[in-house]
Amino acid sequence: MNPTTPSWEKIRADFPILDQQVHGTPLIYFDNAATSQKPRAVIDALRHYYERDNSNVHRGMHELSARATAGYEEARVKVARFLNAGSEKEIIFTRGATESINLVAQTWGNQFVRAGDVILVTEMEHHSNLVPWQLLAERTGATLRILPINDRHELALDRLGEFLTPDVKLFAFNQISNSLGTINPVAELCAAARKVGAVTLVDAAQSGGHLSIDVQTLGCDFLALSGHKMCGPTGIGALYGKLALLETMPPWQGGGEMIETVEYEKSTWKKPPYRFEAGTPDISGAIGLGVAIDYLESIGREAIFKHDAELTRYAHEKLVAIPGLRVLGPPLGTPRGAVLSFVFGDAHAHDVVTKANEHGIALRGGHHCTQPLMRKLGLTSSARASFYFYNTKAEIDRMIEMLTPSEVSPEASPAFSLPLGEIYEMVVSDHARRPRNFGELAGDSVVHVHGDNPSCGDTLDLHVQFGPDKVENVKFTGSGCTVCMTSASLMTLKLKGKPRAEAARLMHLFHDQVSAPADSETGSGPRELGDLNVLGGVRKFPQRVKCAMLAWRAFEQALQESGHERAEVSTEEPKGA
Length: 577
Ligand code: C6P
Hints:
This protein is α/β, with parallel strands linked by helices.
């Protein structure tokens, strides 16, 4: 641990990317849970590697190969030290936390999990620590069991005994939830698992760069690390596994580097970790991760945790003071990771994030790859601010100012919409708040289509009543962002009563209008589209094109299902969406 208090201002200057303007204001990067920024030392290490040392590892007998191999293997030693592993043989380089978890599911899982066994995960898992276990359960006939969370958005530890029974073969859980910020008591969970003979896997994607991790004290069997969330490059991560376990596991990918001898009929494998690293690895990524570890250690991991905690607490206090805003995760005052997800009145997360972006603030909006958790909380999405040690309280103040309803518009939740002008604001906020033709239709001539945008949580049910040659009626239900709801509402008004061919033509026109290149001059748009032209502005926001098109794609499907000619609209993703 570094005994002196770090100079956070000086440390911030190590990150060149932070020194830029976005939409005319200094960038505020609050999307650190998705990926952290990289200090100059890491960027320089990548450049140095490719300028001076680039070569393949473990193969060549020449100077460059020796240097590349030394750098790569030194990085393994650094990861082992960083996690206090018993040996560097316990560290396998992977592409990230996702691949680390899949490796365990494929090798240890296929070898040891059988029908009748139970795989225990928790309600707060990222898809990366859920889907590999679902696949394993499907392959083996094992059962997936889910440990619930409580009202404080923490694991229901009082119910652990009910779920962690002797038939549990593996217990996989995260150390810090990427959606809730909850910090889980890893040592306690591992000890409980040991008592019933279950193997443990800790998903440390969110904790690796924020907490001190000692795998021996924690007592876990496997731990998945994500390099890019801890100042390292993207495409590199690591799996820690107890050597005794790794030695019992078969390889999962075959190829060069992982073999001892190869004959035409069969082969034998190297010992861990090489057994699990087939092919040319991400050499520069591993070296960059090693430098990131040096960098984090030079600041001091406890200092980083304390500083992150202070920033998070500061932001948490201010966020909960905003009327109508609700922060997910453990209540204020409880130690948590540097993640604050929130919902804001009935504003859709994508609208919040789009507005933040206009202020140069990078937030994330959506389900954060925790769809079942969002559903459990009765949400389709949330906005999320996540911090790292280079962030400042002044940046948090700017976010709070952006989120606080102004005196001019003293509503509980400000209208989050795209800054595309007054007419846009009027039309969009009117239709998003009072969608027209909202409801259902029934009858033989009604086609019902369900559509959703999984990444942002828009869901929509479209009901179209077809006459012999025209669209008699159109209604919809669902929930989504302002763009999605406005587009659906305006679409129903536009299509009702139109001959099919005309409806298909309008659909085509609208598609062209919203998916034209962002910088194209389309003027005020085709006259036939009327108010729908206000949505033409979404072409500047590729993620939002999907929102604008959701109702129209559903309509296209309804046209097809009604047995008539396929409409002339592309079902491909709009460019850039
Ligand atoms: N979460 C987020 O925005 P990779 O990228 O494979 O190294 O990590 C996947 C992963 C696994 N577990 C947890 C808890 C995570 O948060 C993540 C990545 C990012 O929340 C991207 S979805």
